[in-house]
Design brief:
Layout: H1 5-10, H2 15-25, H3 34-135, H4 144-172
Helix pairs in contact: 2-3
């Protein structure tokens, strides 16, 4: 199985491919004392090819990282700026809302005090009214509802008497 060098340039990080290609390029095996020198040259070529492949892969990765950084940096910066602008607007709105809420709380406190004062006065009037109705039998005529009740009782009594008079009137004639 012989691999071509075009295949190794597409993925230079595969150590086994680089090693195999380096070995294939140095197929001759010398005999005798030159063998040690040949082995050293062969190992040197293998390691040089491996390091060159690693450098190429690293440069490719660094280039890809730089491209990715450029592609991501601008949209990320724009998104961050938009979020900051939106945050500023929200802070301004929240400040206005907080001021309105504080004003509402102040108005509510004032209203509560007025209500409590009115409730205290109403309770005092109720107590005074109860006291007067317990000890004054003519107090019924002083209030409008008492007058209405008295008029109703008079009208009902008049109707009952008129019915009785109608039945008794012929007897007197």
């Amino acid at each position: 199985m012989i691999l071509h060098t075009e295949q190794t340039t597409s993925n230079p990080t595969d150590f086994s491919v680089i090693y195999y290609n380096a070995l294939q390029s140095n197929r001759k095996k010398p005999e005798g004392n030159d063998r040690n020198r040949f082995d050293k040259q062969n190992m040197f070529c293998v390691w040089r090819a491996y390091l060159e492949g690693t450098v190429q892969a690293t440069q490719f990765r660094l280039g890809a990282c730089d491209n990715y950084k450029v592609q991501v940096a601008d949209p990320a910066k724009m998104a961050r700026l938009q979020k900051e602008q939106q945050l500023r607007k929200c802070i301004e709105q929240l400040t206005v809302i907080q001021a309105e809420l504080q004003d509402s709380v102040k108005e509510l406190t004032k209203s509560r005090k007025k209500y409590q004062e009115a409730e205290t006065m109403a309770q005092a009037v109720r107590e005074k009214t109860e006291f007067e109705t317990k000890y004054d039998p003519n107090y019924v005529f002083l209030s409008l509802s008492g007058q209405n009740r008295f008029i109703y009782m008079l009208v009902v009594g008049y109707k009952e008497l008129s019915v009785v008079l109608k039945s008794v009137w012929p007897l007197f004639l």
